[in-house]
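Hello again, I could really use a second opinion on something today. I've been staring at a protein lately and its backbone has me curious. Can you walk me through what the tokens say about the fold? Take your time with it, there's no hurry, and the full record follows here:
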Amino acid sequence: MVTFTFFFFGALLRGNATYWVGRAVARGVENTRYQRIMHGIMYRRAQRFIARWGMLAVPLCFLTVGIQSAVNASAGASRMPLRRYLPAVTVGALAWALIYTTIGMAVFYAWLALDWPFIVAGLLVIMVIVYFVLRYHKRKSVRIGEVAFEEAKPDQT
């Protein structure tokens, strides 16, 4: 119960802090050259999510990975009324705390029960493989781009 309460209040505080930062930033950048930040790809994605799901976007964002902060900040930037935001963020924080105190802690304890050296070694091997695969594909795409550029150049004669 202590862990659930800790996760709940942590999520609630983080969500509300991000909401108020979004409101402050939206207010602070109005009519400045920094207004383009509020039109970045992550905020546009969060705004579409909010537009599609309405008030449900806030609790649903706690079930996603990667757009929680953007949705809460977008809710603040778009000045979602507190009478709608506070219940929504409370439901989202409850869901997040429930997931992390059940599934999340079970995975964490199972991970602790495993043999650490093999996990670390396995992760390092995977990271090295991913690094070299990405590097290979980047070089290959650069070479393909150079060939296409050379073929597209008009003759110099």
User: Anything to note?
Assistant: The chain has two domains: 2-113, 114-157. Residues 54 and 93 are 17 Å apart (CA to CA). The chain has a mean pLDDT of 81.
